[in-house]
Amino acid sequence: MRTVRVVSAVSVLVLAAGCGGGAEPVVLDQPTTAPEATTPAVDPPASTSDATPQAGPSPTAEDTPTPSGPGEVAAPSIAGTVATGLRSPWGLTFLPGGAALVSERDTARVERIDPDGGVRAVGTVPGVSFGGEGGLLGLAVSPTFGDDRLVYAYHSATGENRVVRMPLRSGRLGAPEVVIDGIPVSSIHNGGRVAFGPDGMLYVTTGDASSSGLSQSPDSLAGKILRLTPDGGVPDDNPDPGSPVYSSGHRNVQGLAWDDEGNLWASEFGANTWDELNRIRPGGNYGWPEVEGRGGPDRFVDPAVQWRTDQASPSGLAFAEGTLYMAALRGQRLWAIPVGNGRAGEPTAFFVDDLGRLRTVQQAPDGSLWLVTNNTDGRGSPGPDDDQIFELSLG
Prior knowledge:
Layout: E1 21-22, E2 60-61, E3 76-83, E4 89-94, E5 100-104, E6 109-113, E7 119-124, E8 136-141, H1 145-148, E9 150-157, E10 160-169, E11 172-173, E12 177-183, E13 194-196, E14 202-205, E15 225-228, E16 245-247, E17 253-258, E18 264-268, E19 274-280, E20 305-308, E21 314-320, E22 323-328, E23 333-340, E24 343-344, E25 348-350, E26 358-363, E27 369-373, E28 389-394
Antiparallel strand pairs: 1-25, 2-20, 3-28, 4-5, 5-6, 6-7, 8-9, 9-10, 10-11, 10-12, 13-14, 14-15, 15-16, 17-18, 18-19, 19-20, 21-22, 22-23, 23-24, 23-25, 26-27, 27-28
């Protein structure tokens, strides 16, 4: 059996916040048309510029900070290494008491990491189909876990993506129950994040499954953020009665987080020009494929912040201490964006090129952040200890 090692903080303290860099918001220039890429511009293979990202224009923020808006960034620094030796880790969620569950995209395994550092497998999710960006993706623990013991997972299956839930009892995952299925699947753009909101509802991100027109189709689950009851029903107060669709016009959302004012934020892969951070409004249409980044017709919602794709390719998103933290794959950095009054302030980059591709970031019950690398997913350059989970403290 493969061993996942847990190591001490001493060897990684040299990677603390001093390796970060800032990026000033600038006045938005209209994006120019980029040439068609021969491979997906989002999350490209390591043989492209993904392995050595080039500097691009600074990210552009919706608003500059004001006394009534976003404040200062809570700077992260590495406090220790939680685990090493993971294979294509993707989802991360915390159990009551502080233990974490981590999904591995290409093995369908779910690992448990205990607060004392112990690591063990709790099961392999059945029915997972692998290939490209598909496999076992996001995880979420039921908000009533103490009563129902349920863990939710998003995964690719034959001919579709689906969300399932499984009981976790006596340290083992039980048989899956389908929560929602029929989500279009592809070798790319599968979305995959699942998270429970402050309202107790289940939010699910889907990609356009390499068929961009589906993002604008109200009859397709592709290119959407979905809002469901925990058992997969449609909440009565969804924007479109009877539909699980909460927002549309997305290309490939892989990050969800709520700030302390209850605003929902989402990180989204662009195509050739702009990656996005969006504040999600019920029923909002975010423009893909009609527009990428800002400047579209009034019926589309503009992003709060946008980045050139070589600076981001954003995946996981977490909120802590007034700041959104966004894990970047191709950009190989952790972006920190202060938010307040529903507005985003000046982004700052940390750990640029130091840890490789970053997939997921989550706040732990003790207030720290856990940051998951993704160098073994076939598009990175793995080191001897990859993939790893780092614990970050916030200064």
